[in-house]
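Thread title: Can someone regenerate the structure for this chain?

I was given the following input by a collaborator and told the matching structure tokens would be attached. They weren't. Posting the sequence so someone can regenerate them.
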Amino acid sequence: MTDPMLERHRCEVRMLIAANRDRARGREWVQNYLDAPAVNGRREQLRQDLNDQITKGNRGGEGEWL
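Best answer:
Regenerated them for you:
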């Protein structure tokens, strides 16, 4: 990934982490987002990084990447 693409990916992962923690959206919303056709080609990397960052303690804060 080029730098702008990497930053976009990380931002998207942080957004998913924050959504997962949000009572209004939650895990079901994240699952629906990841299942959407617009995420084709990025889905597996998003899932992998989402799980990795949550395991490391990332809470989805701006600029946070562990």
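The chain has three helices and no strands.
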